[in-house]
Amino acid sequence: MRILSLAAALTALAFSASAQSAKQSANPISPQRLSADVKVLADSKLAGRAPGGPGEAGTIAYLTSQFKAMGLKPAGDKGGWTQAVPLLRFELTGTPKFQLTVGGKSRALIANQDIKAWTQRPVSSVNVKDAPLVFVGYGVTAPERKWDDFKGVDLKGKIAVFLINDPDFEAQPGEPVAGKFGGKAATYYGRWIYKFEEAARQGALGAIIVHETAGAAYPWSTVVASNGDSYDIVQPDPAKVHPLLQGWIQRDLAVNLFKAAGLDFEKEKVRARAFGFRPVLLKGASLSADIGVKTTHILSHNVLAQIPGAKRPNESVMFAAHWDAFGIGAPDASGDTVRHGAVDDGMGVAGVLEIARAFAKGPRPDRTVVFGESYIVAAYLDGYSKRYGLPEAYSANRSYGYFPPPPAGDDTVLYVGRDPGALRTYFADVRTVGDVGDDMRAYLLRGQRQSWDEIWPRVRTLTREELEEVFQKYQRAVIEVGKTWDWSGYADHFTEDAKYVEHALGNMEGRENIREWIVSTMNTFPGSEMPVLPG
To answer: Which residues, 6 or more positions from 173, have their beta carbon under 8 angstroms from its beta carbon?
Structure first.
């Protein structure tokens, strides 16, 4: 699993004064340019674009040349195009060894099969001997929600065992915790990186998360994808933000562990949803670990370009994508050792470049709210908001519609979607400013006629009950695919007359044609997987 934090090798386009309106054009977004950018970024000459690796210089040179050609201005260090990012790279050396002991009986755990664990402290090795295991539920300390899973329990010298996601992720209607953390819309408390950080704050020796596909939103294959490498910014005191040992264990292993310690895993999960939950020592259970670590100081770079704002140049909105990928690794079935990163995140970088090309030609409004038709669009923006100082994104679609509306005074909207629909009623001026493909356009909405408090309840798309029903149906389908690897049933989620737009192959008409493509693609493409979304 790639571990990247704030300063880890990003491609960033900073738009000072807010999101910029693209000049009206028949087609400012070019699929051909997007494809060309991805081909360059995924080329073997860039060696998989590892941070600080042999392909970084070429990657930066290409991105900088594109920003220069657009007429953008540099926004990096000392007026340049890049921002220096000192990083630590952690590589596991040798074969990590793990041993689980319960009730006096010990068993070796197989790295990447039973357990995935590493460290992000600058040490030469991690040696843990018979560290007691303590179940801390979801491991959340949230004073603003009056929630504390730790209750002052001393974790010094112990390994905290966490559940993934938020305490209300699996809560049933009527439970006191239901909705306390936003339901299926995961908060930062539900993220794996928060669990590790909180374990360090609580003084734990280590932190182990029980992997469950639904709660994590990705399968075990994603957990083990990093090949033992991870990155972190240079921390002034790593012990304050990282426990000595951090990682994941498989769910089945956790179920058996709890059973051997006299506990029922599912019942403990339910108990962890209660306000009064207290950590539980897994009686007679301990974990030992022996890991070799190579720590290297490297220097990577962000790439930053900007369009200065017209009236508020000190206020910024950032569009970002990480330019890095996994570099060089073990050969695949064809013998290729380059992890090209076309999808993760070559396509994202190409998207940022193409957005920049469109916005660079347009006028600069005083203030703009970024508003996405799809909750996924809003989720992408939110994913970067806290980390990179972005303003909040808004969407009336699905669960995002139950978050608060935009603040009063934010009365100019950049809307990305198929059509603003009901929003047209509430704005005097609605104009198309760009075509982004897949029947989606960018719209600029001005002249707000009513307050957001009046507009918001009228444009939300799903009731909470409908959202729960749809989400649960999707969860069941994906979990079943994970068990059977039969993708045929997944196609049943499409209507008979559905139209599927595939970025490489074009359009497919009808459920059965879609089914044929999904089955043939997902059952044959190496590493294919379908994540379980958190909301």
So the answer is: none
Q: How far apart are CA 93 and CA 126, in angstroms?
A: 11
Statement: 89-295 belongs to CATH 3.50.30.30: yes
Burial class (CB in 10 A: 0-12, 13-18, 19+), 335: exposed
Length of the chain: 535
CA distances from 282 to 140, 160, 195, 251, 325 (A): 19, 10, 19, 16, 39
pTM (2 d.p.) = 0.60
Are 76 and 82 a contacting pair, CB within 8 Å?
yes
Task: Residue 116: name the closest of 96, 100, 135, 101 by CA.
Answer: 96
Q: Give me the residue spans of the domains in the chain.
A: 89-295, 368-460, 464-522
pLDDT in tens, the chain (535 residues): 222 212 222 233 333 323 333 333 456 778 888 899 999 999 999 998 988 889 999 999 999 999 899 888 888 888 888 888 888 999 999 899 999 999 999 999 999 999 999 999 999 999 999 999 999 999 999 988 899 999 999 999 999 999 999 999 999 988 999 988 888 777 889 999 999 999 999 999 999 999 999 999 888 887 887 767 888 888 889 999 999 999 999 999 999 999 999 999 999 999 999 999 999 999 999 999 999 999 999 898 888 888 777 777 666 777 778 888 878 877 877 888 888 888 778 888 888 888 888 877 766 534 322 333 344 445 544 554 555 455 566 666 545 555 667 777 777 777 766 666 667 778 888 877 766 554 566 777 888 888 888 877 777 655 555 566 666 777 777 777 777 777 787 777 777 777 777 655 667 788 888 888 888 777 654 444 544 444 4
Q: For residue 63, what are the contacts with CB-CB under 8 A and spacing of at least 6?
A: 11, 303, 323, 349, 353
Q: DSSP string spanning 148-171?
A: ESSTT---TT-EEEEESS-TTTTP
d(CA 56, CA 1): 20
CB contact at 8 A, 325 and 344:
yes
